[in-house]
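Budget justification note: compute hours in this period were largely spent on complex prediction jobs such as the one shown. Inputs:
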Amino acid sequence: MKDFFALQNSVFERQGNNSHSYRVPSYQSMIDFQMKRAQPEFPDSAKPIIRTEALHLYYGEKPAFKNISLSIKNNGITALIGPSGCGKTSFISCLNRLTDLLPHCRLEGSIFLDSTDIHALGTDVIALRRRVGMIFQKPNPFPLSIRKNIELPLREHGVRQRAACEEIVEMVLKDVGLWLEVKDRLNASALALSGGQQQRLCIARALALKPDVILFDEPCSALDPISSGVVEDLIAGLRSRFTVVIVTHNLAQARRIADDVALFWMQNGAGRLIEFGSCQQIFEAPAHELTAAYVNGIRG
Amino acid sequence: MAEISTRAEPRAKPQSADGLATFAVWSAVFIVMAIFVWIIGDLIWHGIGNLSWSFLVESSKNAGRAGGIGPIIISTLLILGVCLGVALPLGVGTAMLLAEFTSAENFFSRLVRRSLDVLAGVPSIVFGLFGNAFFCIYLGMGFSILSGGLTLACMVLPILIRSTEEGFRSTPEAYRLGAAALGMTRIKTFLHLLLPAATPGLVVGLVLGIGRALAETAALIFTSGYVDRLPTSVFDSGRSLSVHIYDLSMNVSGGEPNAYATALVLVGLLLIINWTASWITERWLHRRLTTS
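Corresponding output:
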């Protein structure tokens, strides 16, 4: 067991060192050329990449959350914490407009991604979802081979040359520390992978589209402790390259990886944003009594 | 002593009930198997003697008492081809609309679903009359393989649509959400993920539909007619295998031996078509989806 853990770690670390190759210039220019993507303005970490203003979401008549305004820092990790059912998952689903798929779902307020309102009419939802990727609670690889899982969305977004696809598949699998584990069986089914491997494949699949923001909806809660640790380290490693928004029920995890933390709470039948601040401030000097009670394990 | 026997009693009862249930279940299985074996055995017993290569390729002589069923097999395959050629695209399209683009409680989709369920239960003779009135007379196709195939398509569609729709509905929601989150369009998600995943349901509907179409007599007598010559096109009248069996056993004295042989061919054809359909799907699915 110890050996296995050591092996997992060593594999992961070796892969981790490689991870910066993802942004080598030749690769970047190639992708940008092929995907014909508008270059976003040069990232400025002080500037928020996502800003919501007085956001309300209703499922039919029932409110999911009300009046949420917060700013998400560029290239940082923002953790959303709070008890179940207080609208955290609904909130991040608004950020890539996955709420569009739900019937009877109504949104009020606005969400700005780089100062464009993404819920305005005429927004290119496909392009939006390419920029804002999402990882779900339960790993959801497609019933395809490992390679096809990554290639299918890539092809959809216009990367068609075989060599380019293969290069990207290798890059992103190295990025999530899966390459050494699967390089000999890329054509095997993704469903045969373990839960943790499946979740890392899903992250690789999202990375392949070179998003700016990645939303994680409790990515570790369906995994065993070891896989959970591996995935958590992986998310921490995305800092400064991607903007990460993560919903988690694991307070220790939020404390370990987050830069900013937002506490959601159910009040009067709707989710509310109780407090939003830096990780250190939320955990060490919470301003709101609910926050203090929640982070100290007294309530929630 | 008495204490022991009262304790033992409640155990004895369920055991005998268990034995009875086991016996009942096995008898039921045995009866079903026996009926199947009886039918097939009877067909083979009476039919195998007349079966030969020349029977399969020659045309019938003396109202079917002599000769073979070559043209009839061709007509049957043509009718089935027209039927599936029309029913498959329409069926998959409708199932896609019902399952993917309307919600389960939508008024329109409920109406469509209810109509299909009613249609699936309509007796085939009614379809025959409708086909005769609409395709043969109103659209002026006359007694032809085309009218027969189209009538059969109307009959097969409800089964095909409902089982394909179930196939689509049973695909995990995670595929749709996952694909949408990766910025894939609905149509691409449908083609690359949902359609392959729903194919087993489609094949079940297809196999049931082919069975219903090949077995059909009543609807075809009114629409494709019973001319037993080799058809030159789909606008010709053509006799299907089941109509031939009906004609030989009911209207032609001394036609029974050839009726048996034809029935044997029909059952064989059904098995071959169904096996081929499952085999092709499996191969195709294996290429499209990798699940293990």
